[in-house]
Design a protein that fits this description.
There is one protein chain. By secondary structure, this protein is α/β, with parallel strands linked by helices. It is 43% helix and 12% strand. It has helices at residues 3-14, 23-49, 63-66, 78-94, 104-113, 123-134, 141-145, 148-157, 171-181, 198-208, 214-221, 231-243, 285-288, 300-311, 324-328, 332-344, 414-420, 441-446, 466-477, 480-495, and strands at residues 189-191, 224-228, 251-253, 270-275, 312-323, 346-352, 366-372, 387-392, 426-428, 433-440. Strands 3-2-1-4-5-7-6-8-10-9 form a ten-stranded mixed beta sheet, sandwiched between helices. β9 and β10 form a beta hairpin.
Length: 501
């Protein structure tokens, strides 16, 4: 069926089911069924390749044996279908025995269903949804690889992206970051809050171009590592990896912040880290105890930055999206993290991004921080960074802001690419406007590690119609807390006051 009609068809069916309450439940309901459908298709391939293959899923719970509707009137439906799903399928898959010897491609079934839920209460409507999903022809190469469009549709259907800053990164941005980081065969990348796998997918897409041999292909399939705390993004991520030919995806359903960072060894480190950590959330004291005392912060994004620094291998490269608050923050933890970046890493580039990149979920301004675990040539004693370049990506011509209907596209990153390969300062002294500037480490230390450079010019006041004015107000309100934090930080610095957060 046409992919653009897929989510719409399911949404229209689920609207009539009393058990579905809101977008999050609807998406989770879709996610576990999609996983079983895709897993069943992959099992067809595994059976073809290995005549002795045995499914980890008991026969009566395999998609082909309970979900298929052959049109002969024998398919499970109504109360019988509900009874099977609620009292047989879910208890069986949640209770599968997994040991350290269990292959990853089998273990992911149990992990995927550990916290999954079945919300639908109408067995007839459930049958209709299952039939829509089963019509997807995932054996067809074109449709299988276009499956990413379904994920985009699912995410666009959401009314919000969560309460703790879990904003899904535009594919144009993940592709840009993966390409600029320049993957190499044999390298391993990680995303410690991988969501539906956007960065991992972009990494695989960039790395695939370099696969030349069977040995390269094997390294390609073992090149990724992901962790996702929330259940339904985890399900979508694993499903996405299966469709990209990663039969044993090394993706964990876990919380990256609940392990002591000082216990990580070289075996726990990665050549490349690509991430958009959750931000805006506050972590509890027991979570902060896993971090060195001077780097402990209540802000989720700060803790992820510390985690990244402890898990990046020597010679490794990282590209991380962070909110403006990290750049201008002056509390003790943020200052310690930023100084650690300068001392122990080569913080070579910061890209300022337009505030509407993540519209409509938030208008909070974000940035891409690029750094390597190596000492830059010519860096002063005690530091690995010599210079840090700042570049501001302005809105493309003809755009006031990005939106659902006018999202960021790949070509909008081209100005960064052009500048990246031929770096020059772009400073308009007459208007006091810096679009690109290079700072030495000492210059950044002299301004108390204030990375809030090459700012966006203040917008001219515009009189809008009432409806647009209200819409604009609600979008901008989300940024107010960040602006207040920035002002308070400046006041604290002037007064010489330090306040623990």
């Amino acid at each position: 069926m046409a992919l653009n009609n897929f989510v719409k068809s399911i949404r229209n069916i689920m609207r009539n089911d009393a058990g579905i309450n809101g977008d999050a439940q609807r998406i989770e309901q879709i996610a576990w069924m999609l996983f079983l459908k895709v897993y069943d298709e992959k099992e067809n391939d595994w059976e073809f390749d290995d005549e002795n293959y045995t499914s980890f899923i008991p026969e009566n719970c395999r998609w082909r044996n309970w979900a298929k509707d052959n049109g002969d009137g024998e398919a499970l439906t109504a109360d019988k279908l509900l009874d099977f799903v609620n009292n047989t399928l879910f208890p069986t898959l949640k209770g599968l025995t997994v040991t350290p010897e269990t292959p990853m491609r089998s273990a992911i079934v149990r992990t995927t269903f550990e916290d999954a839920n079945q919300y639908m209460k109408d067995g007839v409507l459930l049958r209709q949804v299952i039939n829509v999903i089963d019509k997807l022809d995932l054996g067809d190469y074109e449709e299988s690889h276009a499956f990413g469009e379904i994920y985009e549709s699912i995410l666009k259907e959401m009314q919000s992206a969560g309460s703790a800053g879990e904003f899904y990164t535009p594919r144009a941005l993940t592709d840009f970051m993966a390409n600029i980081i320049d993957p190499k065969i044999g390298e391993k990348m990680a995303d410690f809050a991988c969501g539906t796998g956007g960065f991992i997918t972009s990494w695989l897409k960039a790395l695939e171009k370099k696969v030349k041999t069977v040995e390269d292909q094997e390294k390609y399939t073992k090149s990724i590592y992901g962790i996702e705390k929330k259940q339904f993004p985890y399900m979508l991520c694993v499903t996405n990896m299966l469709l990209h030919g990663i039969d044993s995806p090394h993706v964990m359903h876990d919380n990256s912040l609940t392990k002591d960072v000082l216990n990580y060894t070289d075996e726990d480190k990665f050549d490349v880290i690509l991430m958009n950590p959750p931000y805006g959330g506050n972590e509890k004291n027991d979570t902060k105890q896993h971090f060195p005392s001077d780097l402990r912060s209540s802000e989720t994004a700060d803790l992820f930055m510390v985690l990244i620094m402890y898990r990046l291998a020597n010679g490794g490269r990282a590209a991380v999206i962070l909110p403006d608050g990290f750049l201008f923050g002056t509390d003790n933890a943020k200052l310690a993290i930023k100084e650690k970046l300068l001392r122990e890493f080569n913080l070579h580039t910061i890209i300022r991004l337009p505030g509407s990149i993540f519209a409509p979920y938030t208008s909070i301004a974000t940035n891409i921080i690029f750094f390597n675990k190596e000492k830059a040539e010519g860096a002063e004693e005690g530091f690995c960074t010599k210079n840090t370049w700042f570049y501001r990506l302005d809105m493309p011509e003809g755009y006031k802001h990005f939106s659902k209907t006018k999202p960021m596209r790949a070509e909008h990153c081209q100005p960064i690419i052009d500048w990246w390969n031929n770096r020059q300062e772009i400073i308009d002294s007459e208007n006091n406007d810096e679009k690109s500037r290079c700072f030495t480490t000492q210059q950044l230390l002299d301004i108390d590690c204030n990375f809030d450079q090459c700012k966006f010019p203040k917008e001219e006041e515009e009189i809008l119609p009432p409806a647009e004015l209200l819409s604009d107000y609600y979008k901008k309100r989300a940024t107010l807390e960040h602006e207040i934090d920035k002002t308070l930080s400046e006041i604290q610095k002037i007064l010489g006051i330090t306040i623990e957060k």
